[in-house]
Every structure is written in C-alpha cells, then in structure tokens.
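Bumping my old thread because nobody answered last time. Still need a sequence for this structure:
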C-alpha cells in the first residue's frame, strides 16, 4: 500500500483494541516528552537560539545534486529574527533579545545551527563557527542539524570532545526509514546511511535526535509503523516528528499544484491517528522533542489545517487516552 492510500486508511479503519490496562508510565501526557526531561535534567527550560553560519548541502552544491530535497525550502523554518549577514555572536544577541521576551523563565540557551548541513565543510571552519558560538557568555552548548552523510569521524570526535564540557545535541535528518520514499524526495542517501551515522555518533557518547517526516510520497502506513520499530532499535536519544507540509518554492509543491493526487496530504484527524499509531510502537526510552512543525503562513501552500502546533500535544494525549494506550505499549508488535 502506498502513501496515496494511507490517509484514507487512517480515517476508515476501526479504533485499535486498548493496550493492556495498566498505569501509563508518562502520566497524563502518555508519551516521553522532551521538555519534561530537560526540566528535570537542567532545572528549567533550555531554549535554542538559531544561528546561520552559511553552510551549504551536498544535495545543492553539486556533490550529490543541485536541486536539493523536493520538500526543502529553508526559509520555511528560519526564524524571522535571524539575519545571516551578522556574525554569529551578533546573531545570538539578536535572538536572545527576542527569546528573553517570549520565554522569560529560560534557564539555559544553546546555539542552534539549523539551516542546511552544519557539519558539511572544512573542519577548521566548522570548529571556528562552533567555538564562536560557545564563546558567547549566555550560550551553554550547541544543537547541530545535519545530514547522515555529512558526519566524518573527525567531526564526530570533535563534537564528543566538546560534549565533555558543553551541551551538544546532534540532530540528524533521517526523514524516512523507507528507501523508496527517500528516493522519491531526492534525499540522496538511504536509511542504512542514517543508521550508520546514528550508531557512530552514539558510540562516542553523543546524544542524537533524528528528524522524521510523516506522509512523504512513496511511504506506506506499514512502512511508517515499521520505521518506529527500526528507529527503536537504534541508540537514539530523541525524535522530532514533522507532518508533510508543502512549502512554496519547492519541487514537491510544484508537483502538487500540477496534480494534487500525486502528493496526497494528511488531514488533522488522520495525522493524529497516525501519530498515535507510531508513538504506540516507538520505544518508551526515546524522547519526543517535536510532534509536528509549523511553516510561516506566507510560505505554506498546503495542507491548511485549523489546528495550531500548540494543539498537537494535547490532542495526541487525548487520542492515546481514548485508546487506553501510551508510548511504547505496542513496541515489538
């Protein structure tokens, strides 16, 4: 079954039988929430301050390709306060002014290298950028977003060295556990590459967060749920889940405009049902750092949901409660 029929099946199939009647290990949330873990570990909120260091991507600069992934437009997740023309220290200052107003109770801040592949470049330049961010007096660590095929051993060794004294979060774009879906979106690597990168990073003591998009073309419901089992078998610390969104200026958005049937999208209720199915099969040890994402309205083409990002967590908890289930209660099934 292809992703083209996944949405219909999510809404048409009957509700699953409840998990064994026992107390949920995660309280009313019913899943292992990242924010709860961070507050216990650091005594309060840890907030990411986005910075842009001008890195590229091998899927854009000609090494693997020039078009990039068909779903990718970095403007869709770049904060409005970020000015790439500023030095990294000034970018942090700008971000802090915004975040201090929005999240006044934050305990620590970490610099978030988010745009493109932030371990892709000459090692000395990478090190200089990381050190510039860590030199800021308000920064306690780094979150580094990258691709699994941009993690040479020398970079992992250096990040492990930094992790002895600073918070280091390595975020790897897995995007799918199905090779056909990865091929369809022109990702340029397979799932085996992601698994290898996660294992090599974790072997050095690094905490790894994987990114996964639910609803990619070429992905079946069975493949998505099998992905929960495959990710659970890896030494992952956390997971960021995203619903497929079509961002203006991307190849996938153009495909949808030409033929909406070629790029089926999940509705709100369908996504919540699929999200609950996935979480039930995910290891309870993996922290959920994100349940979905939000693209600026001016850039978002589809789907047009009425649900805000802040509503995802309570709706997932409510669906799990309705089922009598929780994260990991169907692990291995």
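Sorry it took so long. Here it is:
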């Amino acid at each position: 079954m292809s992703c083209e029929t996944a949405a219909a099946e999510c809404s048409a199939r009957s509700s699953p039988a409840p998990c064994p009647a026992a107390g949920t290990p995660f309280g009313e949330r019913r899943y292992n929430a990242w924010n709860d873990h961070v507050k216990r570990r650091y005594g309060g909120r840890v907030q990411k301050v986005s910075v842009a260091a001008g890195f590229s991507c091998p899927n854009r600069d000609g090494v693997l390709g020039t078009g990039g992934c068909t779903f990718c437009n970095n403007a869709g997740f770049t904060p409005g306060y970020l000015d790439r023309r500023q030095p990294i220290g000034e970018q942090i200052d700008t971000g802090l002014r915004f975040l201090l107003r929005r999240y006044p109770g934050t305990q620590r801040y970490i610099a978030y290298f988010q745009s493109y592949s932030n371990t892709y470049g000459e090692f000395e330049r990478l090190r200089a950028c990381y050190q510039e961010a860590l030199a800021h007096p308000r920064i306690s660590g780094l979150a580094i977003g990258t691709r699994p095929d941009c993690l040479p051993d020398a970079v992992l060794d250096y990040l492990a060295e930094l992790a002895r004294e600073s918070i280091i979060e390595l975020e790897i774009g897995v995007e799918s556990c199905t090779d056909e879906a990865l091929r369809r979106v022109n990702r340029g690597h397979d799932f085996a590459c992601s698994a290898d990168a996660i294992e090599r990073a974790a072997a050095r003591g690094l905490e790894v967060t994987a990114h996964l998009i639910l609803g990619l073309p070429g992905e079946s419901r069975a493949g998505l749920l099998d992905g929960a089992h495959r990710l659970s078998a890896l030494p992952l610390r956390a997971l960021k889940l995203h619903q497929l969104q079509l961002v203006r200026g991307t190849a996938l958005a153009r495909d949808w405009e030409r033929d909406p049937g070629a790029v089926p999208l999940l509705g709100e209720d369908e996504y919540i049902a699929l999200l609950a199915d996935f979480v039930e099969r995910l290891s309870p040890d993996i922290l959920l750092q994100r349940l979905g994402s939000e693209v600026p309205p001016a850039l978002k083409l589809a789907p047009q949901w009425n649900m805000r990002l802040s509503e995802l967590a309570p709706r997932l908890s409510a669906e799990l409660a309705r089922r009598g289930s929780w994260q990991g209660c169907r692990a291995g099934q």
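Strands lie at 46-51, 108-113, 139-146, 167-175, 207-214, 238-243, 246-247, 287-290, 300-302. Let me know if any region looks off to you.
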